[in-house]
Design goal:
Strand content: under 5%
Order of helices and strands: HHHHHHHHHH
Shape: globular
Distance between the termini: 53 Å
Number of strands: 0
Radius of gyration: 19 Å
Length: 245
């Protein structure tokens, strides 16, 4: 691999920027709320994941070794694995953030707001911000294509959806006064329906971008799709996801 430029220029043929922000845990803007040690760890995590993503998009996930990522990020291979126990998590590094977002939406909802309404608001907010977990965004098709071309990434993405669903079930159980560690049938069913709906509209946006539709055009239509999906979910979950926990 060519020596990295110190001027901040990208190497010829490399993407001008990573198609998704670099951290699942936050960004450098979090520094005001973090101690120095935590901020350094966050920046290291961002650097490792950012270099990994550029390499994966350039050459394909299966064609890049973890040792190459470590070299590009200026850390040891052991350090990479300290931050990312699995190679797939170097690319799908937003799984913890997805969990935090859905759980946070349920726990932080308004006094008269149902969990389902709070999650609708979250989906629309992520779309408005062009957040990677919201669906369409400029350049995101490079990320999506890399996932589709690697069987292990596709498997990890399915696993991640199950993790988010389990966390949401716990949050719904808690909202209904139950035990978040042992969500009941209603909470688990509600979480499964909500995540299935979210996956459906997310995948629709991915497919359109991969087919070449402009991100801004997809985003305009995507808002209507999100609203329709949550209207359908509201009919299926008239209690807004509260159930019996």
């Amino acid at each position: 691999m060519a020596e990295k430029k110190s001027t901040g220029e990208r190497e010829p043929g490399r993407p001008a920027a990573r198609p998704v922000p670099r951290s699942a845990a936050g960004s450098a803007d979090d520094g005001g709320r973090l101690g120095l040690r935590e901020r350094k760890k966050l920046l290291t995590r961002q650097r490792i994941s950012g270099e990994a993503t550029l390499l994966f998009i350039e050459r394909g996930f299966d064609n890049v070794a973890v040792a190459e990522i470590a070299q590009a990020a200026g850390v040891s291979t052991m350090t990479v694995f300290n931050y990312f126990p699995r190679k797939e998590d170097l690319f799908l590094d937003r799984v913890p953030e997805a969990v935090e977002l859905v759980v946070g939406a349920v726990r932080g909802r308004g006094a008269d707001e149902t969990p389902l309404a709070a999650l609708r608001g979250l989906a629309l907010e992520l779309l408005a911000r062009r957040h990677p977990l919201g669906g369409p965004g400029e350049g995101f098709e490079h990320f999506y294509r890399t996932v589709l071309e690697a069987p292990s990434l596709r498997a990890r993405a399915r696993e991640a959806a199950q993790e988010v669903e389990a966390a949401l079930a716990g949050a719904l159980a808690e909202a209904a006064g139950g035990d978040p560690a042992r969500p009941g049938r209603d909470a688990r069913l509600a979480a499964a329906l909500i995540i299935a709906g979210w996956r459906t509209f997310f995948v629709e946006a991915v497919v359109r971008q991969l087919e070449g539709d402009p991100a801004d055009e997809v985003a305009v239509d995507h808002e209507a799709v999100i609203r329709h999906t949550f209207d359908v979910l509201a009919r299926a979950l008239p209690d807004g996801g509260l159930g019996r926990g």
